[in-house]
Amino acid sequence: MGNRYPENKLTIVGGGIVGALEAYFAYLDGQKEGKQVRVTIHEKNKALSETTTSHIVPSLTPDEILSVVPRGQELVEKLRLLFNEPGGIRVDDAEGVNGTEIAHQFVKQVQQYSSDEEGHQARTKALLKLGKMSMDLWQHIYDNADLVLKKVLEDSNFNPCREPRGNGSELHDGYRIDLIYNVPNAKAKANAMKAEYEG
């Protein structure tokens, strides 16, 4: 029994995505080094299905982090539309989200932020780099995953956004399909997105 007791132990508080990634990479390191690792995760929820980790799907576009909160007046316009309408982000079924003082302060701060063009460009560049790092991380996880985890990722619609690895004819080999609908000048919008991704 003594030889089965792991010398390497990792204790993680919280079963969110960061804790899950720490546990996974500790497991990979142990496999690579031929060492047993005991990972203990302390989580307030009773089951894995109740954690945020079990509800996360890989996000694989570099600008997704930018699209979460639209700039300035665009945020105000989009908040007028329900989430299930094209371009809408308003959610009415969650109590305390809309109409509160903190919500009004948030919108005001977003509007003020949008007037700082130089700062906006610097933050945009930083967030695009962060988005690229996120895509690279998910690709690394997929490339090093066993068959079970690969299946989980594929079932979660994992379609990597990276440089193509084949001859360019294989579906989902390094690109993602974005549907553009109900948008005026869709072709111009698509070309602008393409130029941004290429940049």
Can you walk through the features of this model?
- The chain is mainly α.
- The protein has two domains: 1-56, no CATH class; 57-161, no CATH class.
- Helix content is 46%, strand content 6%.
- It is built from seven helices and two strands.
- It has helices at residues 17-33, 64-67, 72-79, 101-114, 117-143, 147-155, 186-198, and strands at 8-13, 37-42.
- A two-stranded parallel ribbon has the order 1-2.
- Helix 3 (72-79) packs antiparallel against helix 4.
- It is globular, with a radius of gyration of 21 Å.
- The termini are far apart.
- The model has no long low-confidence stretch (mean pLDDT 81).
Elements, N to C (H/E): EHEHHHHHH
Percent range of helical residues: 40-55%
Mean pLDDT: 81
- Number of beta strands: 2
Number of domains: 2
Strand order of the largest sheet: 1-2
Number of helices: 7
* Share of β-strand residues: 5-15%
